[in-house]
Amino acid sequence: MSQRTLELGFSGHSEERRVEVPPDAPPPWDLRSDLKVAGKPHPRLEARLKVTGAARYTADQRLPGMIFAGAVRSPHAHARVRRLDLSRAKKLPGVLYSEAYPQREVRYAGQAVAALAAESEQVLDDALALVEVDYEVLPHVVRTEDALAEDAPAVAGRRNVRQGRGMRRGSLRRVEEAHARADVVLTREYRTQVQTHTCLEPHGSVARWEGDRLTVWASTQATFAFRQTLARALGISAAQVEVITEHMGGGFGSKFGADAWDVFAARAARATGRPCFFMLDRRAEHLVAGNRPDSIQRCTFSVRRDGKLLGAQVTSHGTAGLGRGAGVLNPAIYAFEATYSDQYDVLTHAGSARAFRAPRHPQGVFALEGMLDELAEAIGMDPLELRRKNDPHPVRQAQYDVGAEAIGWSRRKPSGSSPGPLKRGLGVAAARWAHNARPGTAVRCRIGRDGSVLVANGSQDIGTGTRTILAQIVAEELGLPLAAVEVRLGRTRDPYGHGSGGSVTAPSIAPPARRAAYACRQRLLAAVAAALGCEAESLSLREGRVHGAERELSFAAACGLLPTESIEATATGGPEDMSYPSFTREVAGVQFAEVEVDAELGTVRVVKVVAVQDCGLVANPLLARSQINGGVLQGISYALHEERILDARTGDMLNANLLDYKILGAREVPEIVAIPFSVANGRTSTGMSSLGEPPTVPTAGAVANAVANAIGARVRSLPITPEKVLAAIAEAERTRRASDGEKKKKKKKRIF
Amino acid sequence: MSEERLRVSRREVLKGAAGAAAWLGVPAAARAEGEERAPSWPGIRRLGPGPTPLSFRLNGEAVTIEVTPRTTLLDALRGPLGLTGAKRACDRGACGACTVWIDGRTANACTVLALDVDGLAVTTVEGLSSGNALHPVQEAFVAQDALMCGFCTPGMVMSCAKLVERGAVDEESLREGLSGNLCRCGAYPHIFRACQEAQR
Ligand code: FES
Ligand code: FES
To answer: What percent of chain A has pLDDT over 90?
Structure first.
């Protein structure tokens, strides 16, 4: 163990901490570290492949003899399959393999009843159309509030409403006591919609057998979990399976383990002895490949006139379709005196939810931040002031200042005071996330006698830039330029890495990468020292050269002195790199939005968003800005446009395509000021924090608050459509008139 | 080649086919099965239903392949022609991931029938760079990090290159010109910046 003093925190707010650094581990980077490659804005390594079309995604695999698979899907939300006849389909020349799933009931529109594999996609299409299915349509329920009704059809078991573990928290008694001491107590209902992931690359895989070994190219954000689940489903050992994910076209939480279609592809490939391709079409993407649950949140919050938040009580119901996990993050973030939340999953006849970028967070924060603004309005306090008073996070406190300055918060006018039909408004909301550096990721670093450096890990780059960050870390540790390091990702024969969930990837992969490089560096320097007859401690590696007391030599020349063809080290993230005391407990972020609302048409245009996001030590500001922009834009899309619409009558999705399921496009992009906020939290040896998810947490809340500020009326339901905006304005108008009427009546009384 | 022809979408083709069948009083199934039963008009070449020859210029080279009439340009490119740069993300003209140039104009390859490019010149993202030298838009995409997962990128690059060529890189033109290209990752701010950089 060696003692080190670190400077932790952020600029203008730092402190010294003494830590013990284990032997064989590099000391953690902190505010004083003078980094040359890590933390710098390098373009991503695979960018060239991606802009030229050379990057091969799963859907781009074209293997000799490859066959194509697809499924017949139920158009009904709930039905019994009376008859399922594949005979005509199977007779079609070119149909090679089929499976029928004559389960007694289908329970959501889109559920597969049969699957086929054929010579070509065209034969497949023809064959799918020849499968005959007779359905006996059964009663269904697809909307959350309908499923709550006493006489709603039961979806599974007797009750549609379920409460999972951890879905009741806090103390109701203490919240009620807090409310009793409050000056203002408000009860409001907030709603959010179901959102589908809409990854541009569909789900799916290509399977190929060679003897009893299976190779699968998969569009997955978790190569190892995919391998595990696929092997289990096929009844083989994971060691027989190699999963390859060189590039993937988006996952956002919907692409972890192997799915039914992947298992089918592997079985079809085994049965026919030919590689099999199975990618979902866009309709199936919307129906069966996951979604973000909706929510109905009844909130009772209270505040003292001086702005002290007292009680927060939330009852929430949401549907994850046939799945579970519809809880919301509400209350959270602010220091309430007492909180209580009681949350329920509501079963419906719809495709199951999956994790979706910051599960539970955007929906909860939308309601939470709306309630905060309503309380601020009620006590006549500036909403930012209310947050400052109640936010315990030191980083967010600093971020409020940065963001307020960048958006020009002082321009904010009282809600509803914007004149004319085009009304401007400003809103603010906060983000939180856990510091998700998780032990267990292993990274191998190899230095060749020819001067080559290879870093390998078997997990995937979901689009965040993992490959680039890995190269930066290793280049930094070896004192090399980025271009000298080659990275191999996305093959399960390489060392283990976690799935890209919880924003764990960069924070978990960087520390072992650094330690593996550190170990190689020590060994390289030892070899050089032996060859030169000096002490290894007297040597250092920087700017592509080995520097000694008397002489220096290039990195390549130094590698030439290695006694073996290469040196190699594998490090696994563990206590030695990732359990130092942390400066902060959570990742912090704040966002400010400016909107323009057309009060006559009800349309909302987001004009500007300022996003200040804690990144830990910023791994790469260029990529960090991309992540922040992406989180913000998905957040706006969620706030204003997206909604899965299930037809209550037929149970089918009415907008299962990219024309009618509206996601944000180029026209709706506002000016975004993305501010990666660097915090040395000292928890790991590399200091990077989770970044993929937090920037999408507060956006909808900030936009909704800005809309309310603009029009002086609140839309408590997402997406904020023109219809809802006009209804809210009309409602506010009616209330105003009614109260004006009251006042006039009172006045008249006094006169007479 | 006439613009009209390119504007014919798959949906219209299907509508047209159904309409013709109804007018002729021929059941659709019979038409599909018996080629010899279908009537012919003087001066009109009947295509399909089997593999039909198709010749066009692809990234500057003459190519001839055989496709069935229902094959889209996108499937012809990604299948027999082996060019998987253009992506299939929606297959109905909604996302622009399959954007290519046909006789110098951008088009969604998924909504163009392959046989409709007979005699025309098609450029895909693979044909945009020459040898090792990237097109300025590609260079700028790399430098500005105008991509994340990269699945929209080939289509996006093809649309952007056209806008840059036309000098339409002010915010408004970019918003309008890229409204047919969806990026789920939200790379737009960097894409706009890349177009402006490429223009310089
Ligand atoms: S795949 Fe052609 S527009 Fe979407
Ligand atoms: S970069 Fe992923 S869709 Fe555009």
So the answer is: 92
Question: Which pLDDT tens digit goes with each residue over A18-51?
Answer: 999 998 899 999 999 999 999 999 999 999 999 9
Q: Is the predicted pLDDT of residue B149 greater than 60, yes or no?
A: yes
Q: Are residues A518 and A633 in the same domain?
A: no
| DSSP 8-state secondary structure symbol assigned to residue A153 | P
Tokens 């383990």: give the residue. Answer: A257
| Contact: B150, A55; criterion CB under 8 Å | yes
Q: Which overall architecture, per CATH, does domain B136-199 show? A: Orthogonal Bundle (1.10)
Q: Which residues from B are below 8 Å from A52, CB to CB? A: 85, 125-126, 128-129, 134, 138
In sequence order, what DSSP letters do the residues of A191-215 get, joined into one string?
A: EE--EE---SSPSEEEEEEETTEEE
Q: Find the Cα–Cα–Cα–Cα dihedral B57, B63, B66, B69, rounded to 10°.
A: -10
Cα-based angle B39, B44, B48 (whole degrees, multiple of 5):
65
Average pLDDT over residues A604-608: 98
Q: Report chain A's mean pLDDT, rounded to a whole number.
A: 96
DSSP strand E in A225-275: where?
241-244
CB B184 less than 6 A from any atom of ligand 2 = yes
- Looking at chain B, the number of H-run helices and the number of E-run strands are 8, 5
Q: What ipTM was estimated for this complex?
A: 0.96
Domain range enclosing A107: 65-144
Same domain? A418 vs A469 = no
> Pick from A51, A202, A249: which is nearest to B134 by CB?
A51
What does the alpha-carbon distance between residue A684 and residue A680 come to, in Å, rounded to a whole number?
Answer: 10
Shortest Cα distance from A586 to chain B (angstroms)?
Answer: 25
What's the burial of B112, exposed, middle or buried (CB within 10 Å: 0-12/13-18/19+)?
buried
Q: At the top level of CATH, which class does the domain B52-93+106-124 belong to?
A: alpha beta
User: Which of A120, A144, A168 marks a domain boundary?
Assistant: A144
pLDDT > 70? residue A215: yes
At residue B33, the pLDDT reads 45
Do residues A570 and A658 share a domain?
Answer: no
CB A594 within 8 A of CB A426: yes
B45-64 confidence digits (pLDDT tens): 778 789 999 999 999 999 99
Domain at A480, CATH number:
3.30.365.10
Distance from CA of B187 to the nearest CA of A (A): 6
Q: Which ligand is nearest to the CA of B150?
A: 2
The last residue of one of the domains, among A83, A109, A144, is A144
Asked if the Cβ–Cβ distance from B182 to A663 is below 8 Å, we say yes
For residue B8, the CA-to-ligand 1 centroid distance in Å is: 16
